[in-house]
Amino acid sequence: MTLFEKIANHEIPATIVHEDADLVAFQDINPQAPQHIIIIPRRAIASIDDVEPGDAELLGKMIVLAKQLARETGVANNGYRLVFNCGPDAGQSVDHIHLHLLGGRELDWPPG
Question: Which entry of 18, 36, 96, 98 is annotated as an active-site residue?
Answer without folding.
Answer: 98
